[in-house]
Amino acid sequence: MANSLEIQQTIAQALNVCPPFKTEQEMITELKRRIQFLKDTLKQSGLKVYVLGISGGVDSLTAGMMTQRAINELREEMGDSAYRFIAVRLPYKQQADEAEAMQSIEVIAPDGCEIINIAPSVEGMVSSVHALQTVAEAKRDFVIGNIKARERMVAQYAVAGTYDGLVIGTDHAAEAVMGFYTKFGDGAFDIGPLIGLVKNQVRAFAHYLGAPDYLVNKVPTADLEDLKPGLPDEVAHGVSYDDIDAFLHGKSVSSDIFKKIVDTYHKSMHKRKLPIGP
């Protein structure tokens, strides 16, 4: 039977977890590698535009700053002004942390910005699904939260289709291990520049790129459920990001935390798989 460390290493390998940064130079080298990945992928696609939804959290902030830097470098290297990054704001009615979201846009300084309020499309879908009117309030609220996430991705792909671009995702290892995203919602995208990073590495990138501390260290929240507005990710997880990061980097964690992460990883396995056939 595998011991705890072996299980942690197996999961980390499956998620392609980036090793801890031993020095600042290691962090910078990895950041540059990922920015180059964004540049190479866009060139190979034959397209010239990236699209990303900006939520106000550190993940989309970091991915946005990386993407804009990649686009700036591509324009200079290729002598082609057609390369662009379009940030998309996707509030549901009035977002509680709208100020932080707009501050993130200011920090990123994208080439363009679209604002699409998803409330009408969400409400239209909810009113059309008659089964939703008969379930318990908490269940209904949770399902509607997933509808919000999926409508946001529909909007991003609509923008990307309009500009002939690719959609950037913000998934990273600390969310992936917990299955903390909506299947075919924020889990659907073309390019994932943060894949394999743990949360403290995402923050390290943001800090190095010049993001202000209050955005780098903002309490993460998906904020999808009306009955639980601003619910912190770590409350939803039942474990802290520091504990998740430690687990993924093969460090010792308590037996309760180990069990919580491993159990959640297995329960959410379907989210990390392609659709299956017979």
From TrEMBL:
UniProt-listed InterPro entries: NAD/GMP_synthase, NAD_synthase, NH(3)-dep_NAD(+)_synth, Rossmann-like_a/b/a_fold
A GO term, aspect molecular function: NAD+ synthase activity
Pathway(s) annotated for this protein in UniProt: Cofactor biosynthesis; NAD(+) biosynthesis; NAD(+) from deamido-NAD(+) (ammonia route): step 1/1
Catalyzed reactions per annotation: deamido-NAD(+) + NH4(+) + ATP = AMP + diphosphate + NAD(+) + H(+)
CDD domains, per database record: NAD_synthase
Self-association state and partner proteins as the record states: Homodimer.
Chain's role: Catalyzes the ATP-dependent amidation of deamido-NAD to form NAD. Uses ammonia as a nitrogen source.
Name of the protein this chain belongs to: NH(3)-dependent NAD(+) synthetase
